[in-house]
Design brief:
The chain is α+β, with helices and mostly antiparallel strands. The protein has three helices and five strands; from the N terminus they run H-E-E-E-E-H-E-H. 36% of the residues lie in helices and 42% in strands. The model has no long low-confidence stretch (mean pLDDT 87). The protein is globular and about 45 Å long.
């Protein structure tokens, strides 16, 4: 039960964060976090599209350096082949600093 509540809190926080950063490209309809599998899945309606797309970060890793925490996105899949290729090219194996409070929830 506590795990589901924690995953729900992370999902809401990530949905707001991604919406703020990428809202001009569309709207996130749903975002799910699987803390045990270190996996993120979202469904979004992108501008100019008639149907929603589904995107998954197949695995993420957290890395800590001193007080800083980073997330590394390891693999992607999506309902559009071109989108999977683009996400992989742009974001795979790159590190992104995340707030310490968010890192605690992802652990």
């Amino acid at each position: 039960m506590l795990g589901k509540m924690k995953a729900g809190a992370v999902s809401l926080a990530l949905k707001a964060f991604i919406g703020d950063r990428f809202g001009e490209y569309g709207e996130i309809e749903e975002l799910k976090v699987d803390l045990d599998a270190a996996r993120l899945t979202l469904r979004a309606l992108l501008r100019g599209e008639r149907q929603s797309v589904t995107v998954s970060v197949e695995h993420y890793e957290l890395q800590q350096e001193g007080a800083d925490v980073y997330i590394v996105l390891r693999g992607f899949s999506s309902s559009r082949e071109w989108l999977t290729l683009l996400l992989t090219k742009l974001f795979r194996d790159k590190r992104y600093k995340i707030p310490a409070a968010a890192a605690k929830l992802l652990k």
